[in-house]
Amino acid sequence: MLDIAPSKQAATWLSSFSHALEACDAAAATNLFVEDCYWRDLLTFTWNIKTMEGRAAIRDMLEATLATTKPTAWQLSGEASADEGIVEAWFTFETSSAWGQGIMRLQDGRCRTLFTAMSDLKGFEERKGPARPLGVRHKADPDRETWAEARAREARSLGAIDQPYCLVIGGGQGGIMLGARLRQLGVATIIIEKNAEAGDSWRNRYRSLVLHDPVWYDHLPYIPFPENWPVFTPKDKMGDWLEMYTRVMELNYWTSTTCISASYDEVEKVWTVEVDRDGERITLKPKHIVFATGAYGPPRQIDLPGAEAFQGEILHSSQYSSGEKFRGRRVAVIGAASSGHDVAVDLWESGAEVTMIQRSPTTVVKSDTLMEVGFEIFSEKALARGITTEKADMIVASTPFALLPQSQRALYDIIKARDAAFYDRLRGAGFAIDFGDDETGLLMKAYRTGSGYYIDVGASDLIIDGEIGVRSGVEIKSLTPTGILLDDGTELAADAIISCTGYQSMNETVATIVSREVADKVGPCWGIGSGVKGDPSPWQGELRNMWKPTAQEALWFHGGNLALSRFYSKFVALQIKARMEGVATPVYEAPGR
């Protein structure tokens, strides 16, 4: 088949696949895949976020889902391409309840990877483009209700007279993006946020915080950043954008609101949620709740023996906002990942004497290097080639997690060679570097444990030059009145300690609001079961609990960086919308697996 044009190869395969599926012949469809194959599905067949690995898994899934899914109308969209013997093609299709799209990659005429994703629910499509709402009735009417009046009426009634179908707990970037998706699908939603204004979750962080990811990677759905937006967004600018976004997207956004408790009635299929809204206790009765409390859960506090004797101040990074009050003081930063580096730089800029305590090696990647070799499809050059942010999202999502280590290892071989002199200088300054247990680098650490990495935007040069001190490979034995006693017998003098030790899993937030029992039932979030420290086996093939049904009915998790929140908010919203409209959503395989 190598001498056949890529589009013809793709069309031939897709036709055979379509015929097999329409005949409900799972065996014939499975035989169109290579032995070492993967099918990643976002809702269309499984009503789950699920990767089938190997022919047997694909056959089992098809046998369980074909009768209800009824997939048809498979068509190529655009021309296929070929690279090193792999044919790649995009396609569209439909099921009994949805419209779908996807990407196939063929090897010697058979499928190596297949990606299918839901685009819209049939009959419940977003009203956009040609189907956008008119916005006004061109008719004189003494009882006319203006847009502003309608919005005010909705704001008054939702949560008082009318109950939301969905309650989103957390109004940061994830909650806001999900709220926008749900709004466009007509799902009555309230987003609750503990801060006084939308965007405060960014504004309240330390003053020097700037996104480490580039603008092309960080767009919000529906309203992309303008073309003059900076490549790296400052925190306060991001806060202002999120505040604007909540208003323009007409979100029902309750500020100064905290969630006190939540319980689910398994018979009535409804939550009872107690919230405190600016001092007023309110009971809400949503059908679904979504925890969008950030990428992780509550701050992770480490045990510091002797803390009661320490005469200085101890803060977790979540409590840190500025280094100004530490000017001229000796500050120890515990932790050497992203927040540890950022806090150390802010302290140094404020005139503090900073020492970083590095308890385990860190993966460090220079920002400009990562921009050039790691974000290639999220860039101006990519846009010039027709790769929009939406298309780049699909390309990223189409790669099964099981295949990421191979590509990431190859990427980091390039990075290590390119920046060898930089890494030598960093090691020479006493800073311990690694690239993960299997040399796969930053991205795999992010997925597996969410810790142990830093995109260098300036801290590394300060470490190399000795401006930020480092104590590496040591553990804290105890605090003393004037500092930290390390396990090598030395004492580090400190007037203050900033603990940059990360956060717990998102299900720990569930424990404080719903119950310990429910938190344990759904289990931890993030991680793929790689077996490395912090990401125990068994293999999951997908991120635990994120954006999909959990072991607790009507409880969802949504979060991640801006890119993950943008992309997966669509699929969380589609799942909730389907349930609201009574669309059958048989989930393939038990939630949490």
UniProtKB/TrEMBL annotation:
The keyword Isomerase does not apply. Keywords: Oxidoreductase. One of its GO terms (molecular function) is monooxygenase activity. InterPro entries: Auxin_biosynth/cation_transpt, FAD/NAD-bd_sf, NTF2-like_dom_sf. This is FAD-dependent oxidoreductase.
